[in-house]
Amino acid sequence: MLEKDKFSEKTSYLIFLTLVFFSQVLIAETTISKITNYNADLINSSALFIQNDGIDIQEGEIFFGSDRIKINYKHPQNVTLILSERKGVYINHNLKESQFFNTNKSFIKFFFKLLKGNEFAEKPKAEKNFIKINDSFILDDIVYQITILYENNPIKIRKIIILEDNQNLEISFFDHKSLEFFDKKFFSMLDPYLSQ
User: Fold this and answer.
1) Burial class of residue 137 (count of CB atoms within 10 Å of its CB; 0-12, 13-18, 19+)
2) CATH number of the domain at 38-187, out of 1.10.3720.10, 3.40.640.10, 2.50.20.10, 3.30.450.20?
3) Which pick of 7, 44, 110, 152 has the fewest CB atoms within 10 Å?
4) How far is CA 115 from CA 27, 65, 84, in A?
């Protein structure tokens, strides 16, 4: 009888551990699918943001298109960035100048990968009211560590933290709006001041 009780106890413990392991896997998979679906639904949406690099605070609005992201900085300068996976344009409205650059060799490439995929270097971690994703990569011998925080219920992107060689950049998002429809001109990379 004692032998049977010990066996039963060990079996129960093994079943408990198996259930805990599989429930953790299911929770992680559910969290990944929630984030993947949310990221896909960012198309035709916008959010206000505050960007802080420890020295300057900038404010503006970000717009998500199907293949491009448009960032309008309103304070302290009136600047627009339009980004795709391969290229971008920086438009300084005060100087009426535009400058084109390659995004394929910058950390911007990571964000397009994140928004379109579901493969993360680390599994997302659900913490109280937030889901946290950590990732890192090396680009031109610079180590980038990235943390993305999503509000958990409902899922909303709230903060991106980028640590680059001991420089910290934080971007906080609020006032999310969805179901906005943008025409192709809205994300155009043509220099708006070229013909003036």
Assistant:
1) middle
2) 2.50.20.10
3) 7
4) 20, 11, 12
The C-alpha atoms of residue 53 and residue 70 are separated, in whole angstroms, by: 20
pLDDT at 173 over 70: yes
Cα–Cα distance, 69 to 189 (Å, whole number): 11
Per-domain residue ranges of the chain: 38-187
**pLDDT band of 6, cuts 50, 70, 90:** very low
Span 138-155, pLDDT tens digits: 878 888 888 889 998 888
Which residues make beta-bridge pairs with 171? 51, 160
CA distance 156 to 149: 9
E strands present in 16-110: 45-52, 57-64, 69-75, 79-83, 87-92, 97-102
pLDDT tens, 72-97? 999 888 999 999 888 999 999 999 99
